[in-house]
Amino acid sequence: MPELPEVETTMKGIAPYLEGQTLKRLEVRNGRLRWPIPRGLSSKVAGQRIQFLERRGKYILIHLDQGGLLIHLGMSGSMRVVTPETRPEKHDHFDLETTVGKIVRYRDPRRFGCLLWHQTDIRNHPRLDNLGAEPLSENFTGQTLFDASRTRRVPVKSLVMNGEIVVGAGNIYASESLFDAAIHPHRRCDRIAMVRYERLASSIKKILKKAIKQGGTTLKDFAGVDGSPGYFEQELMVYGRQGAPCVRCGEEIRRVVTAQRATYYCPSCQT
Predict the structure, then answer these.
(1) Cα 6 from Cα 14, distance rounded (Å)
(2) Cβ contacts of 234 within 8 Å, gap of 6 or more
(3) What is the percentage of the chain residues whose pLDDT exceeds 90?
(4) Domains contained in the chain, number
(5) CB 71 within 8 Å of CB 140
(6) How many Å apart are CA 19 and CA 51, to the nearest integer?
(7) By CB neighbour count within 10 A (0-12 exposed, 13-18 middle, 19+ buried), where does 111 fall?
(8) Taking a C-beta distance cutoff of 8 angstroms, is the pair 117, 67 a contact?
(9) Which residues, other chains included, contact 191 with Cβ-Cβ below 8 Å and sequence gap of 6+?
């Protein structure tokens, strides 16, 4: 599933082709995504100028002169920049075409993504109401995690992956950040001291920034807007490395299941 670095990479990839341009049309070939694409949406957005794009959590926000669009990549979604001559394939569900002849095409084999509309500021869309802190913002600190942990008794990995506390630190990056901070993923969150949460917040920021710089992580479906893979997979320290030696101590990396998600860690380095 595309996580924050992959969504950030996608947003930055399509922004130069959309920002400041006028939408010629929205062509919907299959509106049956996770939530149906609203009927009549094409007529609402055609002719509108695209002001700018931004990311909120794992959503891409497209600000128009009037209202805006909300895109989620779901589990297998991706976006490509193509020309009008490029024929759509089976899983290409909608196109955003500008008046200068560029098309941003959405592909999603599993159809768990979405394209939604809000008639005023897209930041006010109800899907964004309960999102937590942006991990790359100044507002996200160890204090954010420490305060949230005091009333919970869940594993710290579950805390980090709770989108109402901090957005975008999904399964891959939660595992990598906990390894970087030397914290065992199953340690109960209310039993972790403030100083360790400060280190964890710094690790989350560091890991996400490195992943964005590498264009995200390609494990199955994800690729950038030009079709290129993300290269952060080559820098993974624990995720997907079950049975391999720890890069720090040589201990065998282990795999367990946390909240139905695979979790990788070093039993020696992480306590």
Answers:
(1) 12
(2) 214
(3) 84
(4) 2
(5) no
(6) 6
(7) middle
(8) yes
(9) none
CA quadruple 76, 81, 87, 93: dihedral, nearest 10: 40
> Any idea which residue has 């320290």 for tokens?
237
pLDDT digits (tens, 9 = 90+) for 201-256: 999 999 999 998 887 654 444 344 555 544 456 679 999 999 999 999 999 999 99
Kindly give the interhelix angle for 194-213 and 171-180, rounded to the nearest 10 degrees: 120
pLDDT attached to residue 259: 80
Q: What angle do CA 31, 162, 145 make, to 5 degrees?
A: 145
Distance CA 149, CA 110 (A): 34
Domain span including residue 224: 142-265
Do 116 and 194 belong to one domain?
Answer: no
Rounded distance, CA 241 to CA 225, Å? 28
Can you give the pLDDT at residue 231? Answer: 42
Catalytic residue set:
2-3, 58, 261
Name residue 96's beta-bridge partners: 26, 104
∠ at Cα 40 (22, 10), nearest 5°?
A: 50
Within the chain, where are the H helices? Answer: 4-18, 41-45, 142-149, 156-160, 171-180, 194-213
Of 128, 154, 170, the residue that ends a domain is 128
Question: Can you tell me the distance from the alpha carbon of 80 to that of 165, in angstroms, rounded to the nearest whole number?
Answer: 31
> Which has the higher per-residue pLDDT, 136 or 2?
136
Q: Determine the pLDDT at residue 218.
A: 42
- Measured between alpha carbons, how far is 134 from 167 in angstroms, rounded to an integer? 6
Specify whether 75 is located in the same domain as 13.
yes
The predicted pLDDT at position 118 comes to 97
Mean pLDDT for the stretch of residues 135-139: 94
Six token digits for residue 233 = 């997979």
| Helix/strand/coil for 142 | helix
- Of residues 22, 15, 80, the one with CA closest to residue 53: 15
